[in-house]
UniProtKB/TrEMBL annotation:
Protein name, as recorded: Bifunctional uridylyltransferase/uridylyl-removing enzyme
PROSITE patterns: ACT, HD
Region (Uridylyltransferase): 1-371
GO MF term set: [protein-PII] uridylyltransferase activity
Listed CDD domains: ACT_ACR-UUR-like_2 (cd04899), ACT_UUR-like_1 (cd04900), NT_GlnE_GlnD_like (cd05401)
Activity: how regulated: Uridylyltransferase (UTase) activity is inhibited by glutamine, while glutamine activates uridylyl-removing (UR) activity.
Family from the record: Belongs to the GlnD family.
Annotated source species: Rhizobium halophytocola
Amino acid sequence: MSKLELGYGDILDVAAFNAECDAIALRLNGNQLQIRAALLPVLKAAITDGREAVRQMLYVDGSGIDCARRLSWLQDQLLATLFNVAISRIFGGKVDTVALAAVGGYGRGTLAPGSDIDLLFLMPPKISQDMHKAVEFILYLLWDLGFKVGHATRTVEECIRLSKEDMTIRTAVLEARFVCGREALVEELLQRFDAEVVEGTAPEFIAAKLAERNERHRKAGDTRYLVEPNVKEGKGGLRDLQTLFWIAKYKFHVRDAEELVKLGVLSRHEWRLFEKADDFLWAVRCHMHYLTGKPEERLSFDIQPEIAQLFDYQDRPGLSAVERFMKHYFLVAKDVGDLTRIICSVLEEQQAKATTGLSGAIVRFTNRPRKISGTAEFIEDRGRIALADPDVFKRDPISIMRLFHVADLNDLEFHPDALKAVTRSLKRIDQAFRESEEANRIFLSILTSRGDPALILRRMNEAGVLGRFLPEFGKIVSMMQFNMYHHYTVDEHLIRSVAVLSEIDKQEAEELHPLASKVMPSIEERTVLYTAVLLHDVAKGRQEDHSVAGAKVARKLCPRLGLTPKQTELVAWLIDQHLLMSMVAQTRDLNDRKTITDFAEKVQTLDRLKMLLVLTVCDIRAVGPGVWNGWKGQLLRTLYYETELLLSGGFSEVSRKERTQHAEILLAEALTDWSEAERADYVKLHYPPYLLTVTLEDQVRHAEFIRQADKAGHALATMVRTHSFHAITEITVLAPDHPRLLSIITGACAAAGANIADAQVFTTSDGRALDTILVNREFADDADEKRRAGTIGRMIEDVLAGRKRLPEVIAARSKGKTRKNKAFAVVPSVTISNGLSNKFTVIEIECLDRIGLLAEVTAVLSDLSLDIHSARITTFGEKVIDTFYVSDLIGHKVTSENRLAMVTGRIKAVLAEQDDELRDRMPSGMIAPAPRRGVVVKRKARA
């Protein structure tokens, strides 16, 4: 591409720039400090104006690779001018004495706005001290200008020697490019590098680069489908393309990747994919650097919408502009993976042919392909499945599906050549292929395999087979959901869900999922469950609710796969209700009988309950790292057991009064070292909700806690216990009761950085509150976690005692913190229902999460004279769903339409307020104690 086409003349007037800099050096007559000071503003202006011109060109033509080349060209001009001024004007030397070469990424003639500048100053064997000073002058000016410069000053001989010893230096020299000075030195380096370093060492270099790539992928999460991908270092990013070019350049001695087409390594279509991927990724990276003003390589949520707008993406039904842009990104990342497989296949084939002599014959004999029992279409090549001949798929397209099935049955990896053949044969997966009874039977065998179905499905997806065979699945390939909850694209999430199901099915998850592992063997319809797990989110991105639309997809697709009408309806029901158990467990009071009866009415049978439990576990586990925790497991187990009890015969027939009396007797008997009078007095402190809800073990612990506090004369006291399996830390608070107590405690937890997972709140008959707050565990080590819990407990005591003011401590915690969810928009909503509970009015709010939100909402409910009987606090990424079970002060539901409207309005006002200001109405300490009835407050862990 010519300079005129790239618009270099609009970036910098080179002649005028050189003349101005030269004039400064002449006028100041070699005074280094004065010249440096005088040049600095001129250079800064040229860089600022030039980079802004390049930015505007990017906005106009959208070409990322041209943007990177323009920036590289601008850098070349700056360096050439500095080089000439330093050597000839300041130190009186000849510019053809030393050579300046660009290496690394800059050596390819591409730069992002925030890229480092990698330079190599090539010196002849003998050089004057002034030339070293000239190099220092150049470097100091570059640093003054704010550039990050990677540099080396070496002779050609040193470069050759170090390249042999260090793979990083070898890679840098591989891409060395002459910028200015003595060009012959650079030419000598490249010639000697090819002859003395590259020759005969391609296998060593390729192995090192692929190992580097694998380690880089491992650190980045080993998936190209992270919803905040690293554009440079992530899987399917620019570094992967650069690695391919390094390998191709080293192995095939090409200067341009297009030459790989002439060599037969890539087809013309594949080369166009290479170009498009390179250009797109460069455009994304350049926009990121320009937007953030720094070398930001992670495509984070807060800049994704702006870049989508710069690429001119528009909203479409079911998908926002940013989701459409990110789908494009992941499809490009997938193309990079395809190109990697293709080039690796060619490299391996050529390497095998290159092995000669006796050693080569021995290697070929030892590693010769072997027949695979039961198939004539495929062979085993060093633990990998390969094609017996190139025309296998041409003769019988169904063999594409068999390839993956045979690999699964024989626990074989895939030969790159086989996957390349699959990628190039995707058009053979047509309607006749999809309707083939054999193809569908094989697919179900893969899906329900006792081996590693997720691995095979992932290989099918990466090769493009899954989306071609299941067009409904193809629509969600590379689709992301723009929120902080989901960590992966939809297709990756579904495949990971199957991986979790397989883990449970093989009894490899008993410790993490004891109940799911226990019920799995009794599930007779494995095929139904595996199909539902694979398809549960297949209708994402549509205008219709994805659960409802997904059920319709299942009714259409399952008969084709070979499922019976009964199985099809069961799959459809599971998909339609796949969020039900999760939402009930996390947003409803499981101690409220109507919660269980309503859920049981929807589930209807134990078989459905079992399958829905396992599907729910798989779905949550596959969302992303850290989303699943033991407390979510406990909530699901509680919901399961309560519903199982109802479906198999109902709740206990023993009256509440009788059960309370029995609990009092058990507690009294458990206090073995207490006098009879102490036992009697203590048992009278507790109301029925406490005695019927809290385990006897915890009741005894509480008794000792209260006894010790009373002996010490402490009105306020806290106690800490950790639960490693549930990933929960328990903080028990004893304090004088108060209408705003819940608001104060939750606010104190927010101020201490604690994320509330659950709480049990009870009142004793002598007017004290016994509240147990459960917060998400932060440290793996118990000692560290107990210290953290102690800090939270002291914060609660300080706030309750009035030693610290809640608004101030929350404001201090919020100060300077960047809101991670600022890129998201969640329309605040308040829903009030009198039909979800027989005894209480249920208030549900949905909004963006923020520090102190729970404290503010509970304060408002207290202001409105509403008694909170229980609450569930659930966070899905940036969104929070809080549910409060309330009554008026005499224990009745709130039924007045005017009052309900007032509650809705007051809560909406809180949700709309700025999250960095805590309401002044929040109390800073205790007021007069007021007795309250015992209540249980349940709060769900924030994901």
